[in-house]
Amino acid sequence: MVQHPEFDKAGQKAGLQVWRIEKMELVPVPEKLYGDFFTGDAYIILNTIKQRSGNLQYDLHFWLGDFCSQDESGAAAIFTIQMDDHLGGKPIQYREVQGHESNVFLGYFKSGIKYKEIFQWCGSKSNRFERLKATQVAKGIRDNERSGRARVFVSEEGMEREKMIEIQVLPETGETPLFKQFFKNWRDLYQTEGLGVAYVSGHIAKIEKVPFDAATLHDSHAMAAQHGMVDGGDGEKKIWRVESSDKVPVDPSTYGQFYGGDCYIILYSYKHGGRQGHIIYNWQGADSSQDEIGASAILTAQLDEEMGGGPVQVRVIQGKEPAHLMSIFGGKPMVVYKGGTSRDGGQSPPAEIRLFQVRSNSAGFTRAVEVDATASNLNSNDAFVLVTPDASFSWYGKGASDAERNGTQQLLSILGISASELSEGGETDQFWAVLGGKAKYRTSTRLKDKMDTHPPRLFACSNKTGRFIIEEVPGEMTQDDLATDDVMILDTWEQVFVWIGNEAQEEEKKEAMASAVRYIETHPANRDPRTPVVKIQQGFEPPTFTGWFLGWDYDYWTVDPLERAVADLHM
């Protein structure tokens, strides 16, 4: 019989070892996570004791969570028997069930054991955006801090699970009458005064209305630090693709190419002040599976542990890549293919017609993203590569920068194709036919030196706290940043957009328009007060607005974002 490779590591020395059953395999649990148990999993725990005689004694447990599957439960039992056989039949076996663990088992974990569940509680007066963001936070905790293994429970106020009850903590001599009534002969040693009633507020405190000072938006120290670079991107790098529960090395010749259906781990090493530094980027594709997102978090933590806990960990969502990550590919553009995967034996065949949008950021680094091959996705400020079976085209918008033109040539080299060059306004009939005909797209241009000096900025306007506030959205802008129950302000320097979500409140709409005007008037660069303020409604965005967002999806709001986020919790 073929033995599991983990058996060779079991019971070799005194101490505790823990494995989790994952996809019918034994996966070792890092020591720092001992005592943390996911209620949807099964575990095997081996305690090895060295006796005075020098012989080893074993206690072998398998633990079953309340929500573990029948397959995982069976696998845990089988692995336990096989490990017992491997250790010569010496272990004493224990079956542990969540909530009914033996004293022997509980004694291993001096800080107690923790069942990993996540509760999201929604107040009756919370709005849709708060619920959506809470759901996204819960999902992020599950996928990145709990390795995708914890269960998430969403509770509405008044509909809580029976396990969730209000707990009042009372000091000695400060017991309330409600507490005392449960004791037949309660006697006070000293008379208590002023502590007899416990209040639970059911009202929202009145909040003084304070006008928002739009001038504060011009200070952006946090944003200045957002794009900090530890070096010029010329350090050493290793890249792995996440496959099931393992990381598989990526061919160095394809470094910088990412598939939206995959997750990747990038280890970057650099010298700083004579010392070695490390950054681990955990890149998660927009179409990657829930299992792989969870596995990428586990593998990132394991790699960090293998390196002594010294590396800086950075979780990167597709479309939100920091400038430093984009800088490490030797001056070549970071290429992101639409969906699909690059794993061996499962490579996604490319579509017959492909369109890549090439755009540089304010730091001068370039990204090439595959978008839907339609004319409406063109943009006068960018460069594009159109690939077809018969011919390929490189298209340069009137506002395309030198960096984007160079990035286009490098993309052609990466794709291994040659292309006919087209300038905006000089397109051929064949070019338009491949894109399904002409369509409106963003045609207004901005000089790139202006964009470097005045990059676009996105602000969220809200009165959720009772006061109207405006906060800047950090990092690269994506369509996901547009909150449907808020008003957003997009400053592109030559004009200011006020985007109104379908669920935005009337006060937010009024305040946002006024704030946009005050924002221009108070700008320290003495902006022209006649700068246009453009008001647009969700679902009716013109190309002059959508063009600022890389890979705009016109069907994004056909499914409610909150419903989509809640559905993701149960995948």
From TrEMBL:
Main location: cytoplasm
GO biological process, alphabetically ordered: actin filament severing; actin polymerization or depolymerization; barbed-end actin filament capping; central nervous system development; cilium assembly
A GO term from the CC aspect: actin cytoskeleton
Keywords recorded for this protein, A-Z: Actin capping, Actin-binding, Calcium, Cilium biogenesis/degradation, Cytoplasm, Cytoskeleton, Metal-binding, Repeat
Lineage of origin: Eukaryota, Metazoa, Chordata, Craniata, Vertebrata
Described purpose of this protein according to its UniProt entry: Calcium-regulated, actin-modulating protein that binds to the plus (or barbed) ends of actin monomers or filaments, preventing monomer exchange (end-blocking or capping). It can promote the assembly of monomers into filaments (nucleation) as well as sever filaments already formed. Plays a role in ciliogenesis.
PANTHER family noted in UniProt: GELSOLIN, VILLIN
Keyword hit for Calcium: yes
Domain Gelsolin-like: 24-106, 115-160, 245-326, 365-413, 470-545
GO molecular function: actin filament binding; metal ion binding; phosphatidylinositol-4,5-bisphosphate binding
InterPro entries tied to this protein: ADF-H/Gelsolin-like_dom_sf, Gelsolin-like_dom, Gelsolin-like_dom_sf, Villin/Gelsolin
Superkingdom of origin organism: Eukaryota
Gene3D superfamilies, A to Z: Severin
Subcellular location: Cytoplasm, Cytoskeleton
Family, per entry: Belongs to the villin/gelsolin family.
One Pfam family it belongs to: Gelsolin
Protein name: Gelsolin
SMART domains: GEL
